[in-house]
Structures are given as structure tokens and as C-alpha cells.
Design a protein that fits this description.
The structure is a homodimer. Chain A is mainly alpha-helical and about 300 residues long. Chain A has a single domain, classed as Farnesyl Diphosphate Synthase, CATH 1.10.600.10. In chain A, about 75% of the residues lie in helices and about 0% in strands. Chain A contains 15 helices and 2 strands. Chain A is globular and about 50 Å long. The relative contact order of chain A is 0.12. Chains A, B: It catalyses: isopentenyl diphosphate + (2E)-geranyl diphosphate = (2E,6E)-farnesyl diphosphate + diphosphate. Chains A, B: Keywords: Isoprene biosynthesis, Magnesium, Metal-binding, Transferase.
């Protein structure tokens, strides 16, 4: 039995320490640095960076090599949250029980802090490759893939699809397409980046990609479930906010019980794609998959 | 005598053609693609991409190799304009005589179109290096430098400094610091990228960097001069808008005549740093420098 909570906390704290170093930049206006730091160090599960680290280690790399890539993914995730919370978008005042970035620093600074984090992320990846002496072609491929998965064809496109689907009847295929882009692509990127940093073979990469796609979808369905049944104080946001915003959810389309069954199936399949590849030392990845289903926040 | 207008128009049209191809992406929601295209293909001088191409060619590279890098810089520039025009920032309704992005597509889509263009730019650089068979380390260094010059330490930081300086008395050093970051860094990056794509030596890179820093500052001073003396219809924006927004300008600090003299000196010095390096075939760069001072828009 793996102590996954302790593992997650330890990895998250390493990521947070490195993130704090990375944004402690000279030559940056104080207000901008503070706004970037406020959201970057606002806690949270750190799921994406932990996935980078866990995948890299499962494939024989070490934390030190993988850490910059973990931080880059968290910067991209954080920028997307800052921009999503803006009045023009989801108009959220609170996230994880704290005021959102624009409520503290104003809209202009929130937009720019997001822009700066996104811009920084790509430099962090490039630097990570150069400093760890990884094959530079791998670095360019990682950046190219990140640009697609985080951009118009991936995460940003997913946010647009989500906005366009508000107040509309959305079927299951469409809902999956939205989430594949909006949240799935960055989770998949995290895992694939960890694998490539470790110099994984193409069959190893295929295995962890299938794993990531499975847990990414399961994570989203679980989020929708928690939004309905979760207790407000545990989530730190208003329960039922999807319903309030008239957003389509898996429980609304499939019912709560079928949604839960699907999560279980997805996690089982995701774990199987790891265990079917004996060269992957995947104990922590398997534990993370289980953790995602058992979590109550 | 070089026909610089024809040269600029030809290069701009090549850049625009390639940009149109690059944003013609499948798997992107139509509205997002349209919003990205609207601002990316809105015309303009295309100064930054032309500088990439002209520098690369001056150092022995060819347009085809340099074109992706030129397009990447224009994507970064365009995203910054879209975000700067937002109500929370400069709140501009028009740019180059057309409605700004958010006036056509709404604020949410404008924010996301900017995010998508910035994200795309880094992928375009990575792909440009991989496809042209340039040294991959060079590609990683270009991405790292771009991340700094376009980010919190460069362009985004400059925008923050500019916002913080509104309605305040700003001295000449401070004003230069704002512009060095806000507009200078991306112009310098354009020229340095062109040079590195051409495999320039370090003394060639030093020469074009000095050139870029000179014309970048001259360009900004000239902009301030034109804001005062330009005719409204030529600029396509309200003349005197800096004054209206209570922004510090070079003419306000130095007077119009001294500002004009300084532009002339900067351009002379910038040209000298090119001509002092005989290995640079810099006729077009010199002509671009002259053009920047003579322009009336």
C-alpha cells in the first residue's frame, strides 16, 4: 500500500519551492511579480506537475531533471485559471477559498500576469532541456506539442467550445470533445512530457498517453459529480455552480450512478495500460489514478 | 537608391500569406480562428517580421528559412495589441481604422484569441527550427530569449510599467526603461532571431543588436512625435491620444525639436553599427532605418 497522500504532498511542496524560485525574477515590476506569485502559489492539488514527476520517475528519470517541466505545466495551468476567472469569462470572485487574481490586483494586472506566466512556461521548458543536457530535438518537440495542446487546437480551443456551449443542449460526444481539449490535453501533455524527459520508448509513450487520456476524462467526470454532491466547504467553491451557469455535465446527461460507473471503468482501463507495459515502474501512477476517484475535492 | 517601399510591401505580403496559412488550423472553433485571423491579418507595417527577414538575408540566410520566425514575432506582437486594446487596459475601440478585436468578437474571445496567438508563436519557432534543419540548440536558445523578451522581464513587464506610470511624472530614464521593455525588446528579438537563424557570428549578432536597440528607441520617439504632429486620418487613430491619457512622451519631456534631433542621431548610430561590420550585407537594414524616420504614420 503506497502512502499516496504523503507522496503527493511531498512532490507538490518540491514543485512549489521551485515555482517560487522561478518567479522571483529581477527586472520585473513588483506588482506583476506579486500577481503572478499570488496565483501560482495558491495551493491546489498540483495534479499536472505531479504527473510530470511521477511519469518521469516511473520511466527511470529523476525529480531534478523533470522539475522544470513540471513547473512549466503548472504555469500554463495557472495562467488558464487566472484568465478563466476574469469577469469577461467565468466571472469568479473566489478560487480555492481565496479571492481570484483580478479581485486582488485588478483586471489589467490579472490579464498580464496570465500572459507572463504563459510566456515564461515556454522559456522554462527550453531552459530545462538545455540545463539537463537532454536531446535538444526532444525539447523542440515538447515545445511544439505544448503549443498545440495548450493552444487553439487544445486548451484555449476547449475554453472557447465551453463558452459557446453555455445554455445549449450538448450531447455526450460534444461534451467529451470540450473536455478533451479544455482539461484533457494539458493532463496528457504532462504525462507525455514526463515520459519524453525520461527518454521513453514509443511503446512506453503510447502506454502513458492512454493512461493520461483515461484519467483526464475520469477526473473531469469526477469533478462534475463532486460539483453536485460535494460539500461546499470541502471544495472551496459554490457547489452546483455548473448547474447555476447552465453548463452541461456528465451526471446531467448520464445520471449520477452511470457517471460513477464510468469513472471506475476509465480508471481500471487507465491502470491496465500502465501494468501491461512491464518496463514502467508505475506504482505511483496507479496510486494517483486511484486517488483521483477517491478524492472528495 | 533602394526601393524600400516596394521591398517592405513585398515582404509584408509574404508574411501575411504565411500567417494566413498558419492560422488556417483544423480542429479550432470557427469563432476563435476568425478572431485570431481578424487581428493577425489587419495590415500594418509588419516592421518586426520584416526585420527578421531583412536581418536573416543580410547575413546570408534565405526568406523561406526565416519566414516562420518572422510570423512568430508578428503573432506575439498581435496578441499584445489585442490584449492592450481591452477595456481593462487601454480601452481602445479602433486600431488602424478598424474596430478592435473585442469590439467585434467580445472580450472573452479577444482574451482567448490573444492567448492562442501567443501560444502558437512558440510552436511556430520550434517547428521552424525542426523543418529548416537549424541547430536545435539554437532553437531552444531562441525560445528561451523570446520568453524573456516577450514576458515579465520584457514586453509584458513594459506594459505593466506603462500602466503604473499613467498620470505620474516620469523622467527620461524611466520613460526609456518603459519603452525598452514595452516595444524595444520585441524589435531587438526580431533582429537577433533573424541573425541567429542565419548562423551569425557573435560580432555580427552584437552589431545587429546595437542596430535594433537604436532603431527601437528611435521608432518610439518618432511615434510620440507623430502622435502630436500627425494628421488624424494618416494615423488611423486619434492624434494626441497620449496626451489625452496623460502619458509621458519624449516631446513632452524634451521638446519637439530635441526629440527630432535625437531620432536622427539614433538612426545615424544604428546605421553605423551595421556598416562597421563589412560582413553584413545590410543595404535593406539601412533603408529600413531611414524609412522609420521618414514615415508619417
Amino acid at each position: 500500500m503506497i502512502a499516496i497522500q504523503a507522496y503527493l504532498q511531498q512532490k507538490a511542496s518540491h514543485v512549489e519551492k521551485r515555482l517560487a524560485d522561478m518567479v522571483d525574477m529581477p527586472r520585473v515590476p513588483d506588482t506583476l511579480r506579486e500577481a503572478m506569485t499570488y496565483s501560482l502559489l495558491a495551493g491546489g492539488k498540483r495534479l499536472r506537475p505531479v504527473l510530470v514527476l511521477a511519469t518521469a520517475e516511473a520511466l527511470g528519470s529523476d525529480e531534478e531533471t523533470a522539475l522544470p517541466f513540471a513547473c512549466a505545466v503548472e504555469m500554463i495551468h495557472t495562467y488558464s485559471l487566472i484568465h478563466d476567472d476574469l469577469p469577461a469569462m467565468d466571472d469568479d470572485d473566489y478560487r480555492r477559498g481565496r479571492l481570484t487574481n483580478h479581485k486582488v490586483y485588478g483586471e489589467a494586472m490579472a490579464i498580464l500576469a496570465g500572459d507572463a506566466l504563459l510566456t515564461k512556461a515556454f522559456g522554462v521548458i527550453a531552459e530545462g532541456v538545455l540545463q539537463a543536457d537532454l536531446p535538444p530535438e526532444t525539447g523542440l518537440e515538447l515545445i511544439h506539442e505544448g503549443s498545440i495542446r495548450a493552444g487553439a487546437e487544445g486548451m484555449v480551443g476547449g475554453q472557447v467550445k465551453d463558452i459557446l456551449a453555455e445554455n445549449k443542449q450538448v450531447d455526450l460526444t460534444h461534451l467529451q470533445e470540450i473536455h478533451r481539449a479544455k482539461t484533457g490535453d494539458l493532463i496528457t501533455y504532462s504525462v507525455r512530457m514526463g515520459a519524453q524527459v525520461a527518454g521513453a520508448t514509443s511503446s512506453q509513450i503510447a502506454a502513458v498517453t492512454a493512461f493520461a487520456e483515461g484519467i483526464g476524462l475520469a477526473f473531469q467526470i469526477q469533478d462534475d459529480i463532486l460539483d453536485i454532491v460535494g460539500e461546499q466547504e470541502k471544495l472551496g467553491k459554490t457547489t452546483g455552480s455548473d448547474e447555476e451557469k447552465n453548463k452541461s455535465t456528465y451526471p446531467a446527461l448520464l445520471g449520477l450512478e452511470t457517471s460513477r460507473q464510468w469513472v471506475t471503468e476509465l480508471i481500471t482501463e487507465a491502470k491496465a495500460s500502465i501494468t501491461s507495459e512491464p518496463s514502467i515502474n508505475g506504482n505511483y501512477l496507479l496510486a494517483i489514478a486511484d486517488y483521483l476517484v477517491s478524492r472528495d475535492r
